[in-house]
Amino acid sequence: MATSVTLTKERSGGASWPGLSRTFAIIKRVLRQLIKDRRFLALSIAAPLIIMYLLKVFFDSLGNFGPGRYIVPAGALIIHFLTYILCSIVLVRERKAQTLQRMLVNGYRRGEIILGYLAAYTILATIQTLIVLFELAWVFNLNYDLGKQLSIYLVVWLLAVISISLGIFLSNFSENEGQMLPTIPLVILPSVFLSGFLINVDKLPVWVQGLSWLTPLYYANTVLQGLIKAGGELGQEWPSLVGLLVYGVIVLILATFTLKEQE
Amino acid sequence: MSENSGPAILVENIKRKYGHIEALRGVNLQVEKGTIFGLLGSNGAGKSTLIKILVGSTRPNEGQVEVLGLNPFKDSRKLRELLGYMPQTPALYDDLSARENIRFFGQSHRLPDLTEQVEKVLEFTNLPGRAGDAVSGFSGGMKQRVSLACALVHRPQALFLDEPTAGVDPLLKENFWEHFRQLAAQGVTLFISTHLMDEALLCDKLAIMQDGAVLACDTPQNIMLRGNTTVKIWRGNRLERQTISEYPTQLPGLLQSYGLDPSITRLELDQDNLETIMLRLINAKPGANPEQAMAKVS
Asked: CB distance A25–B52 less than 8 Å?
């Protein structure tokens, strides 16, 4: 039988910064879910490691082909791909389970939800980026100095954070996983062909070059290509670095405003 | 409690379309504070849409809504502190425990005593023994209890429950209704949608909905009076049937017409149930298809 408990009483004052505390509540909740879903967590870490190892096998099989130009950008592509997919699918799942709607009705605000997810998945992306770059350096014997390594890490990490934002933004247009799936090749394949990863963007038809600007890998790849050259520095391709940052801010704003509070 | 002295919920001429489908066709309702208001209707009647409009999750195409004197869209931030919502599906995080789920939804409100309040609602919904277990291992009824606790944790003044006892066993259903009565006694307004006839009769006031329109809105007792009563009178083996529409006033007259006839050996009153009354109301609607109505209700 139900216990008689008084649940209604006058509300007293609370924290002065509820928005920040609510964002932290979302971060904690998402991280707790990630930790409890061990299979998801293990796959999120293992998948890039396996893919990078297969890439090594592939490059080795090409014989005398010098993969120098492709190795680090390939790592960036894998990170871009995985972070985009993982975050977008999880958010679509929230929408389908109606927990997203429940969060909004409960008073969580759009900006808090986006920031909460972004921060929580950034922690996962930070680990993924570290592991992938360590593996790359190890299997491909990359001998970059510490400054260059840190610069590469910063650019790939930034790309990962922006990919999460992109995942959140595009997931706002999907009601279920089925609707989300077609966006995956739409985002990832142009990243491969148009970002300058395989061929330089200036070799593409002029009208297609404009499309390159729509993929964050274009900016990241340009900065990375400059970095991995002998004597390359982070500031060398600063317009692309700024482009990457601006791209991230725009996507984040779009993600916040396209998250519908009401039907 | 709210300073607003008017009704807890006011719905005026609400209309909502999804494409070419009219989910709500001009609904009007008024719900008094501290009462249990039931919304009875078959699947697709528009109950969930109306609840989503009241909690500010779906915008109506036309009409006005007020909850606790506030507009769910213009005053959404203020109102969300005051209302609790339990969706039709449990809408919980399966990987998390019952306690973690309740705490998370409670954290969206400024509760200085959140930890204490989480324990209170766990106790209220009889969950303390399983509070630390992951929700994924819970039965449907237990998930509904956790979902109710999530809706209650911030001490809402108005509670919107969308089919809260769907798929719940009779014992747990009784338990839920005990909770609802306790909350109403504490001054909480409960707005409950259901398609279960027995449950509808437990409400203080009831609106019967069909195809996006309210067919009747009254106390369950008054709605029951809309039904016919068949009086069966036996004279030995001979059965006579008399149908009256309002038995409390018409029955004395009917019995008086028989006088104290000593040949009457048996007398039975056969009242229409809520389902029959609902079907009659649906069929009385212009353009109603009786067979379709039967299929929707059954």
From this structure: no
